[in-house]
Amino acid sequence: MQQWNETMQQIWGLLVGAQSEIVIFLAAIFVHAVLFGRYKVRTSQKGQGGAGTKQGKCLLAKADEAPTPSQAAEMAMPLVRIVKQLMQKGADSKEFAVELVCQLQTKSDEEATSMLVGMLEIMGKAVTSKVLVAVRSVMIDCNLKLTPRLGELLLRNYAGIQLYQEARDFVTCVEREGVLTPISAVLALRATLGTGDFDASLVQVKKLAALLRASISGDAPAAAPKSIMQQLIAVAAQKSALPRLLQELYNCRLCTSWSLETVLAECVKVHDGPTLNALEAFATAHGLEFTGLAYAHLIRGADSAADAQRHFEAACKDGVVVEELLLAAVDTAIFRGDAVLAQTILQHLNTLGKSAQVAVAVIRLAVAGPLRGDNIEGTILDLYDKHLAGANILMDQQMGQFLVNSALHHGRMDIVTRLMAVAEDSQQHALLKSLGSQNRLGHARDVFNVCPEPTSSLYNSLLEACNASQDVRAAECVMQEATSSGLADVVTYNTMVKAYLQCGDLVRLRATVEAMRSQGGDLAPNCVTFNELIGATIRTNSEGVWALMNEMRSCGVSPNQVTCSILLKNIQPHSRSSDVEKTLAIINALEDIDEALLSSACEACIRVGRFDLLSQQLERQRGPDRVHIRSSHTYGTIIRAYGVLQDRNRVWDTWHEMRTRHMTPTSIAIGCMTEALASNGDPESAHELLKEMLAESDTRPLVNSVIYCSVLKGFSHNKCFDRVWCVYKEMKAAKLTVSLAAYNTLIDACTRSGEMAQVPQLLESMASDGLEPNTVTYSTIIKGYCLENRLDKAMELLHDMKQSSRYRPDEITYNTLIDGCARYGHYDRGMAVLAEMQEMGVRPSNFTLSVLAKLATRSRRPERAFELCEDLSKRYGIRLNVQVYNNLVHACTANQDLQRGLKLLEQMQREGVRPDGRTFTLLLRGSLASGEVTDTAALLRAAFGLPGGHPAVGKPRNGSNARSGWNNIKLCPDVVAEVLEGLVAQRRDPHLAVQLLRDLRTVPGLRIDPRLHLRLTASTASTAAGSEPLKAW
After folding, report:
1. Which one has a higher pLDDT value, 1026 or 729?
2. Secondary structure (DSSP) of 168-196
């Protein structure tokens, strides 16, 4: 006992010694609890009515907010994962219901309901109609009780996906279960409004008002969510029932000043004067408050100038003069030409101080209104002096410019000074640039001189004005002034660079850049500097561009997306392969690109036919560094790219991704998808897609004749000519405008199918649709005659075209004729067409050279193929493309001159022309025919970047290794099989083909028939045994 007492005394001594620390600690706990904890200091009970009204507003505001996941959300996560998996598989409502029942059957009713609530809270807007149907079905099957929260979530989702009728039906269930809350009532009102049923909406308004009065202490009116009220008022306006609505809102104590303003605004919008007067009378009789905005609506909708004057005076008497009221009065005075109202407005301008919007409106009274006189500029300056001094009128560029022009014209620099004193920086800059664009550099300098304080950005704007006026000397003076005052920044120097670029002064341009480099720091050349230089250089000197890129790197400046965009715009079909490869390498080095740059890169690769580089861009898009796409236009570009690469699976994947993200495709995206399918041998799917688009209301207007053309071409190229005419009839039935391009496609189908007899009927249909044939039409008909070997008829039509002043033969016309001559070996006739082509001033192209090489080869004059290509390319500055080289290679292999063909292959690479699948196919077959087994095997290895490739095939010039560089030449697997079996048939090296096949199996993406290995092994064994090799299966 004694020991206990001693212990207590020691403890007490410690407490007394630390009493100050304990007091501070307890005080800290109290303050923390008040500020951050669950305990709050109780407020006084005064003003409970106001608090109740705020409570009602906060309660109803939740109806417009996304649901916040509750504690049940964590328990519902497995349910959410299962539902999302089913959504990805495209499950129907029954499958959803079955899976939900399986997950909930082991739970209690309360737990099952909580899990459904949590699932709907987490999924939010991702909930679909099928999920809602499944939830309702599960509730019935499992006999689950509807809770207020679950009712709110279901109603929210019904309204969110615009299932308004289903939502109204569910409201009946909610009311029957007695779980209707104010939030549910608001959602029910929204759903009813969605159906456009005004009478039913009024019933819901009454229910909402009753719930609000029951949930809020006191009898004060409560405000419903503004978005719902606005929708209710819009429906009432459509039904011409605004007075009735206002009466009901008044009876339900839901009529606020905002409600009155919105109702009046709706009347003004639909120009319903009688209803506006009726509403004014009702509001006056029942003592409703007229705000300044309400009076503004009354003024805008007034039947006469006298009524507008009366409303304006009433607003002034009530002391509710607001900015919107004065703006409405100004608009009405201008519209009605009422000088009395205009003068009344001027008397009340000081009520609002220096409102910029009102000041601009007053200027309009003098420029285009009743205050306009003979001396407009004098009137404006007088108005400014008396009423508007100090207002920032430059906020409106048009009126501000008018006032500045008037002041400058009358030498009133004091007004310009006051205007610039209150103007924002951006407004000062815009004014200087505008004066420069009007070639008023002197006035721009005057305005600059009265600015409160010169800044770097002001100097830069003045420099821009000098550039707009193309006055380099003035720009140099401004530059010198900015430099001496220490206000020249890198933008200043860049603007001078732009000035020297405009006038072509490369010496001073280079001096400016060197000055930037020597000063360094913030003044060193940046990406903008080099982008300006690159943009000016790229149009004339591609080599100079890469010198600038090297200089850019030496300055430590990295290219940005703007740099890449400039480079991509210059990539055209005639661009050198090295330029294309360097540009794409720069893009690949960027850490981040946007969807615009991705689209530009894909389009550039397609333009130059570099499908290997296109594949690299798309491969990047499938990796972790993929670009987040936000527009259907970009999706259309990617779909087109996959279509060019003949990857239909990726085409569909991209389309489904876009549709899954609920993006409405543009007309261009639909066209790209249709073209990608139709051009890759699946016009039926393209046709079905168009039917789907026509069945949807939001995409039906996007389908046009140009898109249908892709389907017509697809069927035509697949020789499904009966389907061509079915689609044509379908277009007629759908009342789609059949364009000239569509008719040309139909005529092309006639030429392909040998049904030239139908062409006159199509020409008659064109005439009945108000369309006239063009050069393409006649060129297509000429093609048909050439295909039928009716060259005399083709020449007659050519003669008719030459006699016409409207349908002059073009390059396509002459190329078609030469190709027709080549098809049947009419060499002399083809050369006559070429001579006439040049006499008519039509420049040959690569396609011309291609068909000429074909003509000479088929006429057994291979030397003439080379002579013609060399002569015409030099005369017209044509850079041979891969198609011309391929036809020249064919001339070599057809005459068993493989070595010359291999030299052509080397020449192609020296000229930066990338060989394609046809190049290697021709050389491989020529090599086999010549019995050159070693060359054949080496060429096949080179085609796929395998070790031991032919020396005539150099490494790719894009910096990649051989395997990745040449692996996209699209060499047909059948050709590979043909070459391998041909090597075995040569019987010189039995094991060469087998080893080559093993190596080819390592090539990514190359699909080889598994049975080929067995055939080669058997052939090799039979060859080794001395018997005849097995024939190809």
Report:
1. 729
2. HHHHHHHHHHT---HHHHHHHHHHHHHTT
